[in-house]
């Protein structure tokens, strides 16, 4: 028992440090980039424009379908291990090669963007059409209506599912170990290979993920309460 406690005490700082250096930064950067991509994709899919814009809409639909229909682990392997074999004469004669950090962020961002795009699209559609018409009646154009009225409300509506997506992304960063990123799970694997205590190490990293996600869930609840404070409950 003393040896197990010693392992926990010595391993916890190492795993936590990996979380601060890799897990959290990867999740934050990927989610920020994915959110930008999600907003753009949602707006393209909702646009009533036709003609050449239909090509952009087709690309947006294909992008969302592709990343929602394939496993994240497979996407990581394609980007990191597969793209180096995609040789294009004149552009990428040696294939598309990326370091693990760039490949991980790129894949997580694209995957997050595909899922969050549908969340944002549904949130925008949930705003009553009458608000568009009321804003147009006072002389606001579509861009002004979207920026000043629709998106702020859609942001509040989409906060819970987007927060869930971020929490899911934090857990999914454990897959980055498969492309040699030394995040929390990878560190626990390395330590387990040294002390031959896989059950202890994997339980420890699971507990640290649970603590981190619990803190994020608390933050989600706090943000929901703050953003909904002006809404009066129905009698």
From TrEMBL:
<keyword id="KW-0813">Transport</keyword>
<dbReference type="GO" id="GO:0015184">
    <property type="term" value="F:L-cystine transmembrane transporter activity"/>
</dbReference>
<dbReference type="GO" id="GO:0043190">
    <property type="term" value="C:ATP-binding cassette (ABC) transporter complex"/>
</dbReference>
<protein>
    <submittedName>
        <fullName>Cysteine ABC transporter permease [Lactobacillus sp.]</fullName>
    </submittedName>
</protein>
<keyword id="KW-1003">Cell membrane</keyword>
<keyword id="KW-0029">Amino-acid transport</keyword>
<dbReference type="InterPro" id="IPR035906">
    <property type="entry name" value="MetI-like_sf"/>
</dbReference>
<dbReference type="Pfam" id="PF00528">
    <property type="entry name" value="BPD_transp_1"/>
</dbReference>
<feature type="transmembrane region" description="Helical">
    <location>
        <begin position="199"/>
        <end position="219"/>
    </location>
</feature>
<feature type="transmembrane region" description="Helical">
    <location>
        <begin position="22"/>
        <end position="46"/>
    </location>
</feature>
<dbReference type="InterPro" id="IPR043429">
    <property type="entry name" value="ArtM/GltK/GlnP/TcyL/YhdX-like"/>
</dbReference>
<dbReference type="InterPro" id="IPR010065">
    <property type="entry name" value="AA_ABC_transptr_permease_3TM"/>
</dbReference>
<feature type="transmembrane region" description="Helical">
    <location>
        <begin position="58"/>
        <end position="83"/>
    </location>
</feature>
<dbReference type="InterPro" id="IPR000515">
    <property type="entry name" value="MetI-like"/>
</dbReference>
<keyword id="KW-1133">Transmembrane helix</keyword>
<keyword id="KW-0812">Transmembrane</keyword>
<keyword id="KW-0472">Membrane</keyword>
<feature type="domain" description="ABC transmembrane type-1">
    <location>
        <begin position="20"/>
        <end position="217"/>
    </location>
</feature>
<comment type="similarity">
    <text>Belongs to the binding-protein-dependent transport system permease family.</text>
</comment>
């Amino acid at each position: 028992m003393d040896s197990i406690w010693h392992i926990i005490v010595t391993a916890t700082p190492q795993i936590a440090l990996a979380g601060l250096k890799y897990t959290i930064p990867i999740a934050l950067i990927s989610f920020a980039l994915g959110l930008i991509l999600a907003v753009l994709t949602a707006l393209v899919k909702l646009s009533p424009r036709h003609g050449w814009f239909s090509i952009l809409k087709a690309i947006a639909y294909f992008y969302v379908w592709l990343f929602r229909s394939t496993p994240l682990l497979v996407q990581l392997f394609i980007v990191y291990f597969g793209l180096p074999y995609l040789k294009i004469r004149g552009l990428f004669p040696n294939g598309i090669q990326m370091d693990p950090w760039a490949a991980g962020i790129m894949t997580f961002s694209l995957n997050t963007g595909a899922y969050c795009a549908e969340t944002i699209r549904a949130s925008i559609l949930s705003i009553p059409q009458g608000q568009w018409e009321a804003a147009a009646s006072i002389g606001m154009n579509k861009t002004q209506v979207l920026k000043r009225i629709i998106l702020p409300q859609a942001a509040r509506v989409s906060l819970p599912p987007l927060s869930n997506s971020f929490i899911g992304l934090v857990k999914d960063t454990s897959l980055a170990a498969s492309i040699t990123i030394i995040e929390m799970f990878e560190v626990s694997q390395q330590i387990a290979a040294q002390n031959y205590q896989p059950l202890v190490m994997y339980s420890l990293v699971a507990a640290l993920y649970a603590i981190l996600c619990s803190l994020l869930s608390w933050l989600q609840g706090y943000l929901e309460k703050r953003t909904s404070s002006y809404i009066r409950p129905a009698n």
